[in-house]
Amino acid sequence: MLAGGTSRRFGRVPKGLEIVGDERVVDRVVRAVRQVTPELIMVANDSEANKWLPGVAVVADLHPGAGGMAGVEAALSRGRDALVVAWDMPFVTPLLLQALIHEAIVHDADVTVPESDSPYGYEPFCAYYSVRVRHSLAKFFDGGGGAARDFLGQIPRVHRIPISAVEQLGDPRRLFFSVNTPADLERARAMAASPK
To answer: Is residue 45 within 8 Å of 61, Cβ to Cβ?
Structure first.
C-alpha cells in the first residue's frame, strides 16, 4: 500500500487517515487488500507512519521525493511481486484486486494495470508489479526517473486490463476515485453514503 506522498493538495496532512463512511480511508483499503493477500506492507516516508497501522511493516522510498514510482520500487525491495494500491482510494474492491493478480499470472506480465478514464488511460498505483522490473526501476531512477507512464513505456510486457473488463467489476470512476483534495474527501463521503 502506497502512502508516501506529501499531500500538497491536502494541506500536507495524511489523507489516508481521513474518515469516509465511518472509517479511515486506509482501513477501507486494508480491508480490501487483506481479502486477497495475507501479507501487507505500507510504503511511507512520514515519521509517524509506524503508528497508523500497528503491526504492519513500513518501508520508506529508496528515492525520496521521486514520486509514486519510488513507492513501487520500495514495495519491490523485499524481493517479491507486489500488488500496489494507493492508500487514498477508498473504493477499491477485493474483486478488482483479485482480477489484477489473476491477470498478472495468466499473462505472465511484468506489470498489470487496469484501464480507466484517467488522463493516462490506466491506473499505475492500483496495479500488479512483478519483481522482475525491480532492476529496470532502479535504472530508471538512476537515469533521472519520471512519471509512471515514462517507466511503463519502457517495459515490454505490460498487460492492460481493458476498461470493458474493469466495468464488469464495478464503476471505474468509483473504483479508482482518489482523495487528493478536501473537495475530493467531501465527494468520497457523499459517495460512501449513496448506493453503489
So the answer is: yes
pLDDT in tens, 111-132: 999 999 999 899 999 999 999 9
- Which candidate, 148, 196, 152, 189, places its Cα nearest to that of 173? 196
Given a contact cutoff of 8 angstroms between Cβ atoms, the answer to whether 82 and 143 are in contact is no
pLDDT band at 5 (very low <50, low <70, confident <90, very high): low
Cα separations in angstroms, 146 against 8, 55, 139 = 18, 32, 12
* Residue 14 near residue 25, CB atoms below 8 Å: no
| Distance of alpha carbon 45 from alpha carbon 185, whole angstroms | 22
Predicted local confidence at residue 59, as pLDDT = 94
Residues 2, 188: Cα–Cα separation, whole Å? 19
- Residue 86 phi, psi dihedral angles, 5° rounding: -70, 140
pTM of the predicted structure, to 2 decimals: 0.93
Determine which helix (DSSP H) or strand (DSSP E) holds 114, and give its type and residue range.
strand 111-114
Q: How far apart are CA 104 and CA 180, in angstroms?
A: 28
* Residues composing the chain: 196
> Pairing mode, if any, of strands 23-24 and 19-20?
antiparallel
Which residue from 165, 105, 149 is spatially nearest to 140, judged by alpha carbons?
A: 149
The x, y and z cell numbers of residue 120, run together, are 493516462
